[in-house]
Design a protein that fits this description.
single chain, alpha+beta, Glutamine Phosphoribosylpyrophosphate, subunit 1, domain 1, Rossmann fold, 4 domains, 16% strand
């Protein structure tokens, strides 16, 4: 729901309103229903609005509270805003709108930075205190809504996307070697606070940052579940765990129906999105709008999963929409998806989500989506290798199954000046896996995947691709109470039945067995997986462009090897190696870097 941006000065100068306006203009697609800019003293705030809750002008932003104490901008949705509004009214607060934005402002005035503990939802916000000159930035627990930061001489800028900060100007666009190392090791993931650019950082999830008038700041991480067997769940049977998970998911799905406009579902036909549809039908939703996408087959690989999405649509009588994308649309669609990326992302379903979102946005403004279930409930193939109780050697086992490449491999890929002297990606994983608060190796891996890898791959992907068309995606599997419950669930129940065992058990109560027991599927985009004609041409063009030659990121011998056999070279996790290295270069060129 929207895009925010702003600047705060620490040197006595006024903020650069022209730069803030450029940032806001770059965010227009995220909020096509309204815009606003506000400035006072050292700060300027801008907002682009997507009208979801309180469709009147009273919900416009930037918003100042009734007592002229604070002004803020907000992106996301607070699902319990009505309950919080009633609680705050009883505490003496006066409201002028029925928007969740105003609830955020009053919650901050009542509870200060602890307001985030009261929020059920996805959010990023910036709140300026008029009296103290303090700026407060906050991000939701699972990082569903983004917030990028760029420091400059005497100032800090912030925005909902990295390209918006670039539009503001004066950003250090040199490449961060540590981030590039992570990108090539972790399937294009770069962990917060880094991005591939030295001059741009991102506020980590579950973090509130208080920025003082002199530019100093303090971060507070306000949430982190314990991945241990909690005493209150000690005597629960597998059946009781199944029912608890289903009840928590039902609550999560119900919460995400809060809206003043209709809410649809992105339906892949897999277990996760099918469960969302089934639970909504169980709640009495009728004629629910559902949407699926497919592509033409390439290289013998099927390009759609309509068989399963059609089955669910029929079972629950949804108003179903199929989108079949011809391969000749991919080159153009690819450029649009890359332009929408705040950071480079190689997953093939980026294009699928972008094309699907374009069509869905013509029908609805809000959808629920199934992202996050695999990380939360151990659905990926690398988790069984971490099933041993001992955490000894867990980081090495994780690297063997999760990493695209080893540090030694990267010495063949990157030019020496871009390669960090030590294996920074593995060191990061070792530190996270060794941290207290996880009982087993699998618990530590799920914690890492849910709170780091998930945030900066699938979650970011869904936000970027949907919001580029003014479509808000809500992810019930990342409801923080559901995540807390799953974190406490015994590992053997999650690993059962080939992964996501406890979730599959829940699914069997509601779904056809063909959907629950099918092989794990993905959004297939065969033309990218197999480097088909026009996509390969785009790759060659980017890697041979003058900008790529000047940048000198990759070793010439490695690129020649990939280009000589585009479909043969795969990373450890099976991704097309040429696509991964090319996508980073294409993204840099697309964004003028």
């Amino acid at each position: 729901m929207c895009g925010l941006s702003g600047e705060i000065r620490f040197d006595g100068e006024r903020p650069d309103l022209a730069a803030v306006q450029r940032m806001s203009d770059r965010l227009a697609a995220r909020g096509p229903d309204g815009e606003g800019i506000w400035s006072r003293g050292p700060v300027a705030l801008a907002h682009r609005r997507l009208k979801i809750i309180d469709l009147s002008d009273l919900g416009a932003q930037p918003m100042t509270d009734a007592d002229d104490e604070v002004t803020g901008v907000f992106n996301g949705c607070i699902y319990n805003y009505r309950e919080l509004s009633e609680e705050l009214r009883r505490l003496g607060h006066r409201f002028r709108s029925t928007s969740d934005t105003e609830v955020v402002l009053h919650a901050y005035r009542q509870w200060g930075t602890a307001c985030v503990d009261h929020f059920y939802g996805m959010f990023a916000f910036a709140i300026f205190e008029h009296r103290t000159g303090r700026l407060v930035l906050g991000r939701d627990r699972l990082g569903i809504k983004p917030l990028y930061l760029a420091e400059g001489p005497g100032r800090l800028r912030f925005a909902s996307s990295l390209p918006a900060l670039l539009a503001g100007g004066e950003v250090d666009t040199s490449l961060d070697p540590v981030a590039v190392h992570q990108y090539l090791s972790w399937h294009a993931t770069v962990a917060a606070p880094r991005t591939v650019l030295n001059g741009v950082r991102k506020l980590p999830p579950a973090t509130v940052r208080v920025v003082e008038p002199d530019g100093s700041h303090q971060d507070h991480r306000y949430w982190q579940p314990s991945y241990t067997r909690r005493p209150e769940y000690a005597d629960m049977s597998p059946t009781e765990w199944r029912d608890a998970v289903l009840d928590a998911l039902r609550t999560a799905v119900r919460r995400r129906m809060v809206s003043d406009v209709p809410v649809g579902v992105l339906l892949s036909g897999g277990l996760d999105s099918s469960l969302i549809v089934a639970l909504l039908a169980d709640e009495g939703q009728r004629d629910l709008a559902t949407f699926s996408v497919g592509f033409e087959s390439e290289g013998g690989a099927e390009g759609d999963e309509f068989e399963y999405s059609d089955l669910i649509a029929k079972e629950f009588a949804t108003d179903h929409h199929r989108l079949m994308v011809p391969s000749d649309r991919l080159p153009t669609a690819l450029d649009g998806a890359i332009a929408a990326m705040s950071e480079p992302m190689i997953s093939h379903d980026v294009v699928a989500f972008h094309l699907l979102s374009e069509q869905v946005a013509k029908e609805v403004k809000v959808v629920q989506s199934g992202q996050g279930a695999d990380e939360v409930f151990a659905g990926y193939h690398w988790y069984p290798a971490l099933a041993e109780p001992s955490r000894e050697g867990a980081a090495d086992r994780y690297a063997e199954t999760y990493f695209d490449r080893s540090h030694a491999d990267l010495s063949r890929v990157l030019r020496p000046e871009m390669l960090p002297p030590d294996d920074v990606a593995t060191r990061f994983v070792r530190e996270h896996m060794a941290a207290p608060g996880a009982e087993t190796a699998l618990d530590a891996a799920l914690r890492l995947d849910t709170h780091v890898m998930l945030v900066d791959d699938p979650v970011k992907r869904v936000d970027n691709m949907t919001m580029d068309w003014g479509l808000e995606a809500r992810v019930p599997f990342l409801d923080h109470e559901l995540v807390e419950l799953a974190a406490a669930c015994p590992p053997e129940l999650k690993l059962a039945d080939g992964g996501k065992g406890v979730l599959k058990d829940a699914g069997r109560k509601l779904l056809p067995h063909e959907v629950v027991d099918r092989p794990k599927g993905y959004f297939p985009v065969p033309a990218i997986t197999h480097m088909a004609g026009p996509v390969l041409e785009r790759v060659r063009e980017a890697l041979q462009a003058p900008e790529a030659k000047r940048r000198g990121l990759y070793q010439d011998s490695y690129l020649a090897e990939l280009l000589a056999a585009p479909d043969e070279h795969r990373t450890r996790r099976g991704a097309n190696a040429l696509w991964q290295v090319a996508l980073l270069e294409i993204w840099l060129q697309t964004h003028g870097i």
